[in-house]
Amino acid sequence: MASEELASKLQRRLQWEEMEEGGPQPEPRAAPVPEPQPQPPARAPIARADAELSVQLNRRLDINEGAARPRRCKVFHPYSEFPEFSRRLIKDLESMFKLYDAGRDGYIDLMELKLMMEKLGAPQTHLGLKSMIKEVDEDFDGKLSFREFLLIFHKAAAGELQEDSGLMVLAKLSEIDVALEGVKGAKDFFEAKVQALSSASKFEAELKAEQEERKQAEEKRKLRQAAFRELKAAFST
């Protein structure tokens, strides 16, 4: 092993001496050929973006052709979308909606609507219930959101429901007293037309009425507390 290393060193020494004397130059070593690098795969986000764009374009074509309905804004403002309804009426309808929303998921599904109609004394067949939901089901999810629930009463007030339809039966059996809602001379909300009132002034008046009610309730509470303290002091002496 040592002799081989020594021979290698002598060989390199002779080459360097030949180079210094102008002798033949050692052949340069060939540069290593770089190995081909694998091509990176197509980026997944671009593929997903293309797929999403294709879905959106197809939906837009369906909407233009009437095969689909446009989605509504996720934020729902009942007072602005249904200005013909007073704040009190919307709150009453909201309480009614929550009463029958047994699952507490913000929707009334087929079974909950079935129980609702039974409690109102107007049971419906399975097909009848599906037909009721379909008539106001704007997002085709097979259940009623609060907005779609309000749409029932909007259509009933505007005369857009058949007299013998399940939704009209639901609207009539709800027993909404419109005399408290400021509709003059209306014994039945669904026999009266929605009056053209100023939404801004109506909204402001209802806010003031609510504030006055809260103020009176607070004064009564304070009076009860004062009476209780006086009674307690009388027994303490």
From TrEMBL:
Lineage: Eukaryota, Metazoa, Chordata, Craniata, Vertebrata
Listed GO biological process terms: neuron projection development; regulation of cellular hyperosmotic salinity response
Protein name: EF-hand domain family member D1
Keywords on record: Calcium, Coiled coil, Metal-binding, Repeat
CDD domains: EFh
Recorded GO CC terms: mitochondrial inner membrane
Coiled-coil annotated residue ranges, if any: 200-227
Family matches, as Gene3D superfamilies: EF-hand
Annotated region described as Disordered, given as residue ranges: 1-48
Pfam family for this entry, one: EF-hand_7
SMART domains (UniProt xref): EFh
InterPro entries in the cross-refs: EF-hand-dom_pair (IPR011992), EF_hand_dom (IPR002048), EFHD1/2 (IPR040365)
SUPFAM superfamilies: EF-hand (SSF47473)
Domain EF-hand per the UniProt entry, residue ranges: 88-123, 124-159
GO MF annotations, alphabetized: calcium ion binding; calcium ion sensor activity
